[in-house]
Amino acid sequence: MRIPKWEKIEVKETEERHIAQLLIDAKIGEAPLLIILKSEVASEVEEIITKIENQVRNSHFDISLPYPLYILSPLAKPRTNLNIVRNLGELPQHFVVKTKRLKSKEEALLKKTSVLSHKLRSHDLTDKRTYIKSQFSLNRVLRDLTRENAYYETLIKQLRSNTNE
Amino acid sequence: MSEKKKLTLTQEKMKELAGFEEVLDLFFDGQKILSAQEARTHKDDTFEIYSFLEKENSRLQQLDNLFSQQMRTHEFYGQTSDLCEQQSMKLDQNKNLLVEELSKEDSPLQKNLTELFNKTF
Fold first, then answer.
1. Residue A49 burial (CB < 10 Å; 0-12/13-18/19+)?
2. How far is it, in rounded angstroms, from Cα A94 to Cα A82?
3. What was the pLDDT predicted at B84?
4. What is the distance in angstroms between the Cα of B58 and the nearest Cα belonging to chain A?
5. What DSSP assignment string belongs to A98-130?
6. How far is CA A154 from CA A146, A148, A149, B97, B106, in A?
7. A18–chain B nearest CA distance, Å
8. Interface contact flag, B71 A100, Cβ < 8 Å
9. Which of A114, B53, B96, B119 fits as disulfide partner to A109, beta carbons 3.0 to 4.6 Å?
10. How far apart are CA B49 and CA A7, in angstroms?
């Protein structure tokens, strides 16, 4: 059990097996993860990002829930689904915590956190995300219909008031 | 080995003793001298993790609640499609009403059209 604060890993090689092992060792999904790409060659960075993306897709992890996955690289272009930051200041500050020896009350809370994050991971998050997206579009349709109706209603009201005058 | 203690002083006392830090070190060998404010911030530090964990628990709890209860209720009893249907019907009615209003002889559209025709032809 560990405090869910930023875990940093550095990817130095472009080999798929190496990246997969790094992600497994970092226990992706169990804590917020920051992948640091120090390479200064743009094509290499793109290649690593594609491989990370494949790995994440294959292992069915959600990139935001319960804990986010971020990539730190000044060269990366935001063409991927993964979250990319250019410097550490852009990371969500919620997970920036100074760790020290925990007291019993804090340990009890950490146990609860761990149980809750396990519970959250047990949901089919990809499925839920698809459902939420479908609801987005349906809600937009409803919004457009309501706006159109409101416009026609005002128009009718104005026409009637003009006729009465 | 004796345990190193912390000596807490008020702000006024700290000001009075300014410049005598080296002498104080001789008297209170190994003791850490803190102002009352510093001591308070040291004490507050211990709550940082506690409050972080509380916030984290509340975040996870809310997410779990969203996925396990609210979304399930929405899946079974969602009203958006019905509301869309209702609004579409209302839209048709409103369009018909609008045409009716505009086709009346004294409607502004008819008046404007009459004026336009009279001026042109």
1. buried
2. 19
3. 94
4. 9
5. ---PPPHHHHHHHHHHHHHHHHHHTS-HHHHHH
6. 12, 10, 9, 12, 19
7. 31
8. no
9. B53
10. 16
Give contacts of A 16-75 with B, CB under 8 A.
Answer: 65-66
Q: Which two tokens stand for residue B89?
A: 């019907």
For residue B34, what pLDDT band results from cuts at 50, 70 and 90? Answer: low
Cα-Cα end-to-end distance for chain A: 76
pLDDT per residue over B35-50, tens digit each? Answer: 666 666 555 556 888 8
User: What share of chain A has pLDDT > 70, as a percent?
Assistant: 96
How close is the nearest chain B Cα to the Cα of A88, in Å? 20
Q: What kind and span of H or E run contains B43?
A: helix B36-65
State yes or no: pLDDT of B99 exceeds 80. Answer: yes
User: Each residue of A62-112: pLDDT tens digit?
Assistant: 778 888 888 888 776 666 778 888 888 888 888 888 877 877 888 888 899
Residues of B in contact with A3 (CB under 8 A): 49, 52-53
Lowest mean pLDDT among A20-29, A48-57, B86-95: A20-29
A136: its two tokens: 């987005």
